[in-house]
Design brief:
about 150 residues, alpha/beta, Nucleotidyltransferase, domain 5, 5-stranded mixed β-sheet
Length: about 150
Amino acid sequence: MLQTDQALCERYRVLALDYGTKRVGIAISDEMRMLASPRGVLENTAKLIPQIISMAEAENVRVVILGIPRTLGNTDSAMTSEVRKFQKNLSTAFQAFGITVESRDERLTSVMANFNISERRLPKGKREVKSLRDEEAARILLQEYLEENKSR
């Protein structure tokens, strides 16, 4: 078997995070890295990084995708520096586990998430639950990554 074929056959998951000051949306891939599924949210507290590490270990995660907020003009937003600081702390924490943290432009994921949720025809109260948008934004971020990295 060629080395690239072996890499394609390796089973592991990719975890995506939609970082927010109150909540972090979570999505995870299947082990063949074809499908992204929403996994809820984690509260943004001092326990956030340990909770993400625990989830990554339990789910056989090797790559974490972190959405980086940018403006439509491709400049940093007010939230960008906070997310970059979180990325640095997360990368440092994951170094010991051999898990890579990659950043990805998350422009329009919240808009797409709102559209996807409205298309589900849920009752208004359910559609307005912010955590639903956060996990859907993480799912979109991850699915885009998986589509672009099919040969990885």
